[in-house]
Amino acid sequence: MIFDLQPIDLLIIFSISLAKYSVGFITGMVIPIFPTLIDKHFNESLPVPAANFSSEISVLNSSFNYQQLSILFATKNICQILLSPWMGYFCGRLGSLNILFSGVGLQTVSILFYGFGNKYFLLIIGRIFEALASGAINCAVSSFVAYRYTDHKKLGLVYGIGGLGLCIGGASGPAYGGWVFQYHGKLMVFLTVLSMTTVEAILILSLMIANKSNKSHHIETIKNPLCAEINEIVENKFDNEIIISMPNNISISSEGVNVLLDNSFKEPKFGSLLNENGNENNHLSVEKSKPEHNIFYFLSDPYFMICLGAFPVMYFSLFVYYATLPHFMKVTFGASESQQGVIWLLNLVGYFIGFLLGNFLNAKFAKSRHIVLMVTVYVHAIGALCISLMPSWWSIAIPLCLIVNQHLVFEIIIAPLLTSIVAKRHESKFGLMAGIIMMAIALTSSCGSFLGPILFSKIGFLYLNIIVAVMGLVYGPLLLMLKQFV
Questions:
Q1: Residues paired with residue 419 on neighbouring β-strands, in sequence order
Q2: Do residues 405 and 354 make contact, with C-beta atoms less than 8 angstroms apart?
Q3: What sections of the protein cross the membrane (predicted)?
Q4: DSSP three-state, residue 258
């Protein structure tokens, strides 16, 4: 399937994969840095230093302020919960590429706040900008890919590559941040990342130029005195190929109807009609009496909610493990920080396996995606049960790799189902779809990071994993109701 991609598809893949990589990389990069910054600031009553102090990094003072660290980490999740739906809304209004480019700009601002910030509140402001950038990039990428690819196999492939980039960034960010911070200081950590955001901006600008180079097509009027019926307009944005099929949904009078075909990627101008009020409808069969497809209409759709609910079921375990697995490994097996790092680094193997497996299943079992999705949730639950039964620290890598590869399989398989639901039931408002999903993931991240340590201390790691597994086993059968959208 990769060999069927056009040059513009390769540009899209490089652009969105680097954008997603940068989100994961910056998110992971600050994990080993923030505790030391907080420790130095609150115990010495000095501005946060930008210089190297590597000799004191490994030990935190006894009066370390965990509350301030929690606030710093929670700021991003809270902002994403509140702002992600708006990012999705703006993707539909302003265009996904414009929002994507804006996200890179916000990302650069956050890096500058991190690098030059010498006060705690400046780190908070940087965290807010990082949340805005992360929400903008993730929503724009999801919306853009959903609009661009109607072929569900290619859709899953591109989603998978983007997800793989995010995962690789999340796995490599902490190693880079910790090493450069220890030997070269905080300022060097963030300034070197600016080169990545610069390349990212150039790729997105190139994609925007390639898009604008394709002239828009405007068919002013379609007239048929005998009455014609049009059901669907399918537009290939880059090959300038337009297909108009005429079954039996909408009648057009002798006065005609205005049709706008625009190659500018300003969603939702993908084969759209202007109604009598001048508003755009992606599907010509939309009736006047249908309510506006806002966030509440999405949340009242049972099929969309089944898909949406699968994200917390799959992601809750990952955020719980981020908060509890290092402590479990240290207490149970005496694993050092470097040994813990090896376990997380081995996740890259799981991600690559998940990418290959997900694309194979998406292409091979296209008519049974709902069943594949249910099996993925079940395998994830089995992995959660196994992770607490491992006899040594290194053996934890086996079920953990199984869990993370199922995460990537899940993202590849659920993408075509979600886009099908939104296209058929919500006028192809993919930007709003992406915003709602980001809000759900951010909410899951907050709950998992907060509840994980509490449940770990109250009931233990084994029973915590039993809860995670039961969530998947109970939720799995609901996914069978998505059969009509495969």
A1: none
A2: yes
A3: 12-34, 94-114, 120-145, 157-181, 187-210, 303-322, 342-362, 371-390, 396-418, 430-456, 462-482
A4: strand
For residues 286 and 88, give the distance between their C-alpha atoms in angstroms, rounded to a whole number: 21
Contact 268, 429 (CB under 8 A): yes
Helical residues (DSSP H) of 61-185, grouped into ranges: 66-94, 96-116, 120-148, 152-184
Could you tell me the mean pLDDT of each successive run of 10 residues in the chain, 486 residues long? 72 91 88 74 47 42 64 82 86 89 93 85 90 92 89 88 87 80 80 88 90 50 39 37 39 39 40 42 43 77 94 90 81 78 80 92 92 95 91 90 91 92 89 89 85 85 93 94 91
Q: Identify which of 125, 81, 82, 92 has the alpha carbon closest to the alpha carbon of residue 106.
A: 125
The dihedral sign for the CA sequence 424, 425, 428, 433: negative
Neighbouring residues of 380: CB distance < 8 A, sequence distance ≥ 6: 314, 317, 402, 403, 406, 407, 410, 472
CB burial readout 136-146, b (16+ within 10 A) else e: bbbbbbbbbbb
Distances from the Cα of 42 to the Cα of 45, 304, 369, angstroms:
5, 46, 52
Indicate the burial class of 308 (C-beta count within 10 angstroms; 0-12, 13-18, 19 or more): buried
In Å, how far are 119, 157, 315, 358 from 309, measured between CA atoms?
Answer: 39, 23, 10, 20
One-letter amino acid identity for 110? S
Token representation of residue 310 = 């699968």
The confidence score (pLDDT) of residue 383 equals 93
Quote the pLDDT of residue 4: 67
For the record, the structure tokens of 420 come out as 């099908």
| Spatial separation of the C-alpha atoms in residues 127 and 455, rounded to whole Å | 27
Q: Where do the domains of the chain lie, and which CATH numbers do they carry? A: 1-214 (1.20.1250.20), 217-261+268-291 (no CATH), 301-486 (1.20.1250.20)
Query: How far is it, in rounded angstroms, from Cα 457 to Cα 452?
Result: 9
Report the alpha-carbon distance of residue 438 to residue 35 in Å, rounded: 26
Q: Comparing C-alpha atoms, which of 110, 130, 119, 123 is closest to residue 34?
A: 123
- The pLDDT of residue 183 is 81
For 186, residues 6+ apart whose C-beta sits below 8 A from its C-beta are 33, 37, 48, 49, 50, 51, 114, 115
Query: Cα(21)–Cα(285) distance, rounded to whole angstroms?
Result: 39
Contact 316, 471 (CB under 8 A): yes
The pLDDT value given to residue 203: 92
